[in-house]
Amino acid sequence: MVSLERSKKKVQLWKKAIVHFLLCFVMGFFTGFAPTGKGSLFSTRNIAIPKIPQSNQTQPNMLHHSRLESEIFNKPLLDETSTTVASEWFNLNDTRHSEKVLEEKEEEEGEERQEQDQDQVQEQEEANGEFLNPRRLLIIVTPTSAKDQNRGMLLRRLSNTLRLIPQPILWVVVEQQIEDSNVSKILRKTGIMYRHLVFKENFTNIHEEVDHQRNVALNHIEHHKLSGIVHFASLSNVYDLSFFDELRAIEGFGTWPMALLSANKKEVIIEGPVCDSSEVMGWHLKKANNSTDERPPIRVSSVAFNSSILWDPERWGRTSSIQDTSQDSLKFVRKEVLEDETKLMGIPPNDCSKILLWNLPLST
């Protein structure tokens, strides 16, 4: 019995040893595959000891970090609210400023529209007035000479003056027929309605040649029955532009004073009528002693007349048999001017002594 009990005890000891061995073997086997870092499953001392102090040390740090995070989180909110308020304020100011600018622009546009409407009304009134009372045609007669070295320059200067005159206007330029004349080329570039007349006769006297050119122009006007106010414009004339407005007011004959200037002499001579308002009372003379002549010479540049006098004599109370202008129309005009001063109209009508025309001959 004792031996059996001993054998049973030995068997139990061996079983315990074998189980213990197997357990150790299994534990060792699996611990070989486990990681060797700090987070090992079996390093209980390393895990338990640091956890308690870490929780105690990090608690104030966590509070500090939470405060920082709350401040960081709240700071952009404050910044955003301040920026939104500022942006709204700026936007409000911008809208107010833009509204003021729009109101000012609308007021300016309204004033401009009113001015434009007034201008349009004035233009319409002027157009209606011109339609009811159209401007008279101005017939400007200009004799030229190929002997004048400044003819081209003087033609361009006079054309620049005539282009400033309100239409209608007809420029009649007369010259002797020559081959190398550039007058027609100059006239084409002026942009003015013109008639270029030529003649074949030769003259030795310059004054006779100029009178002949004027007669050529007057015969052309009579032949074609051009209706307008005729004015003899010399190339050496210098004008006040208001002079041409006064010409259109002439019904029959008109006259005006003219200042004769000299490029070499320091003197001014006044020729033309002496007026009381628009009524011709006498004539200025070249003589220094101012002696009066019954028949003073009349410079044609200081006279203008209605062209219908040439081709419609019955309109002016004359018969065609009395009037003979086929030979010398200029002589007929001078005779009509000197025959009766009462039919002459002084220009300008309110003050006939005002100088609107100057004659400045240039030395050739």
UniProtKB/TrEMBL annotation:
Organism: Nicotiana tabacum
Name under which the protein is recorded: Beta-1,4-xylosyltransferase IRX9
Domain of life: Eukaryota
